[in-house]
Design goal:
heterodimer; A: alpha+beta; Chemotaxis protein chec; 9 strands; B: alpha+beta; 2 domains; two-stranded antiparallel ribbon; 9 helices; elongated
Chain lengths: ~150, ~230
């Protein structure tokens, strides 16, 4: 049974809730877009593949500076490993929350963490939903790609 | 706009430059238009995402600060040779085909992964642009007698749900059913879920959107979505 929009919105909700927990509710949402021709990848990305009630993927992609602020590294540059750890922790938390809510109705892959561009093939849907997020003038994007419009 | 357009700054810009007030990232984008690189390449070099570059470019066009630069045949042929955009000053790896519009109706295909891990980006955002469909494969948009306002369509669908954020996801589901090649034929590479200024002239696309609204939201588009 395909998930309802309310359930799909939980993917965004849980991501925002976690980021707001870290930032003290300072995440600002920009107007979302639907993209037909391109995917947005920032410096680091944590991606989850979805199967079952929703088929496709969801990912959070963020600039190095965004992750540096999240990491709390005020002195010196954050390392690549630190960035991967930060985006990996967020993605794992989101995956865990989604699994808790949807159980077996939604199969969620292990988080895939990569920098710049995916290192494995991605199934590209006809359109993706892009929700820009800003914190301390740094950008991140929540991106949802559903394989079809199947709805309840 | 598809990202393949080339813009240059105008004499009107040169005249007004001292009075223009913009934020630094907007200046960076404005100063990057050189009459040589495509919008997608300019956005990359200015470290602005494509989604952000589109409304800014529209604003600059409306202000008359930039204008589209027509290409000579030689320039066009040179550009279609799949040249590495990193050679043009872009700070990220060359664009990769992530989604071919003319094949959108078929099952999505896995994409080839890069052969080697990419270096850390100098730019914070990489936009994976798609090569434009060959002109002969683009559907011919037969104009309708009246234009459809994309913003009105988005607002109508959003209003069907009591929550804006959830309504925007319903809009997304509707547009998953609209063939991308019809949208791209009308230069619609993205839909802004707030304040989109696009007008849809093509009869086929208007019908596809109406059908998608009907199929997904079980509603008929009202006459008010037409200009």
């Amino acid at each position: 049974m395909p998930l309802h929009e309310r359930d799909i919105h939980y993917f965004i909700d849980v991501t925002l809730a976690h980021l707001n927990k870290i930032t003290g509710n300072e995440i600002v949402l920009r107007d979302p877009t639907i993209e037909f021709q391109s995917l947005v990848f920032s410096a680091y990305t944590g991606l989850l593949h979805l199967k079952g009630g929703a088929e496709g993927f969801a990912y959070l992609t963020a600039s190095q500076q965004f992750l540096q602020h999240l990491h709390g590294s005020h002195q010196g540059r954050i390392t690549e490993e630190d960035c991967r750890d930060v985006i990996g922790d967020i993605t794992s938390t989101v995956a865990h929350a989604m699994h808790k809510r949807f159980g077996t109705t939604l199969q969620i892959s292990e988080p895939r963490i990569f920098s710049t561009v995916p290192d494995d093939p991605i199934e590209m849907p006809p359109a993706v939903f892009v929700q820009p997020l800003i914190w301390r003038k740094e950008h991140a994007y929540f991106v949802l790609g559903l394989a079809s419009a199947e709805t309840t | 706009m598809t990202g393949t357009e080339i813009y240059k700054r105008t004499p009107a810009y040169e005249h007004a430059a001292r009075e223009i007030r913009l934020h630094a990232p907007q200046w960076k984008l404005l100063l990057a238009y050189d009459g040589q690189r495509t919008l997608a390449e300019v956005a990359l070099s200015a470290e602005v995402s494509f989604a952000e570059a589109l409304p800014l470019t529209r604003k600059f066009l409306e202000q008359g600060w930039i204008e589209e630069q027509p290409l000579t045949l030689e320039q066009y042929l040179k550009r279609t040779g799949l040249r590495d955009v990193s050679a043009t000053g872009a700070a990220v790896p060359p664009a990769t085909v992530m989604h071919e519009p003319e094949k959108a109706a078929a099952a999505p295909k896995p994409l080839a992964a890069p052969s080697a891990p990419p270096p850390l980006p100098a730019s914070p955002v990489t936009e994976k642009a798609v090569e434009p469909a060959a002109p002969e494969k683009s559907p011919v948009a037969k104009p309708s007698s009246r234009a459809m306002k994309l913003s009105a369509v988005v607002d109508f669908i959003t209003s069907l749900v009591g929550n804006i954020s959830i309504g925007q996801l319903l809009v997304y589901r509707v547009f998953l059913r609209v063939p991308p090649e019809l949208l791209l034929a009308e230069d619609i590479a993205s839909v802004h879920l707030v304040g989109d200024t696009s007008l849809i002239q093509g009869e086929k696309l208007q019908k596809a959107i109406a059908d998608a609204v009907n199929a997904v939201a079980k509603r008929t588009l009202p006459d008010s979505v037409f200009a």
